[in-house]
């Protein structure tokens, strides 16, 4: 292993224009932001019209169907962008604002913290600092640093009685039991810690391809998904699709291929209806999910490794 010296560079070297370069890139790589703030995001639109203005990105939290306004600023924060983001959120009925900038003033950081502490518990405000680090002449690394978050303030305490909090409690309990059951099989050596999220990821040995299991408390559905991010989807998805019948036979089922054709990311998924408030049904769903996760992991870890990149 070699240490590489990195140099911080201006993000505009990669994205000269916010609207024309950075916003489309972020929309295509929305999972990068989703992972940072603990949500599974789906892009609804770019440059969404709000009267004479336009919101950079309107997204949706797949778990709650709540809208999220994402405001981009490849420079130091200013009052204009803060005001616009609040205007967009009110007009589009968004519950969350994510403000991305290369430099946050202390005043704007305090403003976001104040909003998180003093607005309705359904609203959330994120401040994300964007950094770009040059690794070589042709490669760079992006960092998203959280400067303001709703997860550790008074709002967390307030929200413990609402539906979202109850949903996340169910998900945390479910994934905790799921991890324990899967770990006991000794079929998959490395498993992530459970979190109160809609999804639980299981790695299969390739970057940007994973099993992203789901626990949907609103629809009472759990499931297994091979999740192929758009960075590699043009290579891996067609190769897997060409072997669809063979893969279905190995899985022992007929999963749904590409459930959301308009999405950049692609999935191959199966689901199981249950009642997440019924302990007996939960145990049944857990056993099913563990079994299918092992099968999906065995089949797809081999398949993706055989695809030449």
Biggest β-sheet: count, sense, barrel? 7 strands, mixed
Computed Rg: 21 Å
Mean pLDDT: 88
Low-confidence stretches: 152-161
Give me the secondary-structure category: alpha+beta
As a percent range, the share of helical residues equals 25-40%
First and last CA, distance: 23 Å
Counting H and I runs of at least 4 residues, what is the number of helices? 9
Percent of residues in beta strands: 25-35%
Tally of extended strands? Answer: 12
The run of helices and strands is EHHEEEHEHEEHHEEEHHEEH
Shape: globular
What is the secondary structure topology, with strand pairs?
Layout: E1 7-9, H1 18-28, H2 30-37, E2 41-50, E3 53-61, E4 67-76, H3 79-92, E5 94-103, H4 106-118, E6 124-134, E7 140-148, H5 154-158, H6 163-185, E8 199-206, E9 209-216, E10 221-228, H7 233-241, H8 244-251, E11 256-257, E12 266-273, H9 279-305
Parallel strand pairs: 4-5, 5-6
Antiparallel strand pairs: 1-6, 2-3, 3-4, 6-7, 8-9, 9-10, 10-12, 11-12
Characterise this structure.
With 309 residues, this protein is α+β, with helices and mostly antiparallel strands. The chain has helices spanning 18-28, 30-37, 79-92, 106-118, 154-158, 163-185, 233-241, 244-251, 279-305, and strands at 7-9, 41-50, 53-61, 67-76, 94-103, 124-134, 140-148, 199-206, 209-216, 221-228, 256-257, 266-273. The strands form two sheets. Strands 1, 2, 3, 4, 5, 6 and 7 form a seven-stranded mixed β-sheet that branches. The protein has a five-stranded antiparallel β-sheet with strand order 8-9-10-12-11. The longest helix has 27 residues, at 279-305. It is globular, with a radius of gyration of 21 Å. Residues 152-161 have low confidence and may be disordered.
């Amino acid at each position: 292993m070699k240490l590489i010296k990195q140099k911080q560079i201006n993000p505009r070297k990669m994205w000269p224009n916010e609207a024309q370069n950075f916003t489309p890139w972020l929309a295509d790589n929305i999972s990068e932001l989703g992972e940072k703030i603990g949500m599974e995001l789906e892009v609804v639109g770019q440059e969404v019209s709000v009267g004479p203005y336009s919101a950079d990105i309107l997204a949706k939290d797949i778990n709650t169907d709540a809208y999220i306004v994402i405001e981009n600023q490849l420079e130091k924060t200013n009052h204009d962008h803060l005001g616009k983001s609040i205007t967009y959120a009110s007009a589009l009925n968004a519950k969350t604002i994510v403000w991305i900038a290369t430099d946050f003033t202390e005043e704007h950081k305090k403003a976001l913290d104040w909003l998180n502490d003093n607005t309705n518990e359904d609203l959330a405000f994120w401040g994300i600092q964007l950094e770009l680090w040059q690794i070589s002449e042709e490669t760079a690394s992006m960092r998203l640093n959280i400067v303001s978050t709703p997860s550790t303030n008074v709002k967390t305490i307030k929200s413990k009685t609402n539906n979202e909090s109850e949903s996340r409690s169910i998900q945390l309990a479910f994934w905790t039991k799921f991890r324990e059951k899967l770990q006991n099989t000794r079929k998959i050596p490395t498993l992530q810690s459970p979190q109160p999220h809609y999804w639980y990821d299981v790695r299969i040995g390739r970057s940007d391809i994973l099993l992203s299991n789901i626990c949907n408390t609103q629809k009472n559905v759990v499931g297994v998904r091979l999740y192929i991010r758009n960075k590699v989807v043009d290579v891996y998805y067609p190769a897997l699709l060409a072997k669809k019948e063979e893969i279905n036979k190995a899985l022992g089922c007929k999963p749904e291929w590409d459930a959301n054709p308009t999405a950049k990311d692609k999935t191959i998924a199966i689901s199981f209806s249950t009642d997440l408030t019924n302990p007996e049904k939960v145990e049944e769903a857990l056993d099913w999910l563990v079994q299918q996760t092992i099968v999906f992991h065995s089949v797809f870890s081999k398949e993706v490794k055989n695809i030449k990149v």
